[in-house]
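fold-stage: in
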Amino acid sequence: MLGLSIRWSLVDAPDGVEDELASYVAGTSHARFTGMSGLRFKTWRVRRGEWFEGTYVFATDEARASFEEEFRAGAADVPGSRMVGSPPVLIEAFDVVAIAEGWEGFEAAARY
């Protein structure tokens, strides 16, 4: 499987941006990626005051390459960049070695 990480720095971002980002994910972004063709799953991660990240796992090289190309072309104008006040500091493709599902199972949700 094929991954892509997109990370924004929150070091100089406005106060409270983490909550604004979480609300955006719950209200808009989660629905956009749920059921997206070529995408196996996406997670959104945050370390308050440090960074916000979208981590994607795609089914094919073509799906990842297409998404990455489109994202890079408009990275400065995506909602995350507007909320944070700057474009991503990292756009990095990677290979997924393995995934294990624990006893508690996988729980998809728009917000935890």
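fold-stage: in (second)
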Amino acid sequence: MKRVTGIGGVFFKSPDPKALAEWYRVHLGLEVSAWGGVAFRWSGPDNPSGTGTTAWNPFKADTDYFAPSTASFMINYRVADLHGLLAALRAEGCRVEDKVDESEYGKFGWVIDPDGNKVELWEPPPGK
């Protein structure tokens, strides 16, 4: 089974995400969207149409989205089969969150690494 196929996003906390995003826009040329982050579009052998993205997104410093981790960041990894991978991780003794989110944006699940960091696993919708 394929496990991680790429990085889906980099998320991090900031005391002022809007000001930080503006700094990145002005000084590094990131095209920050209305939702507060950037979607870097790319293509590859598994995705020749270039419909895939890697997200970059600052969050408010007091967000609980990264909980139970106390880290100031969270990495989102693209996966080919979220439910299969979560089952495999559970069988391997990993700490896997019970919650799975499914929407038009794909399927999302979470595992906690040995350092206590919450890792987001994302299976994009078909064709993305």
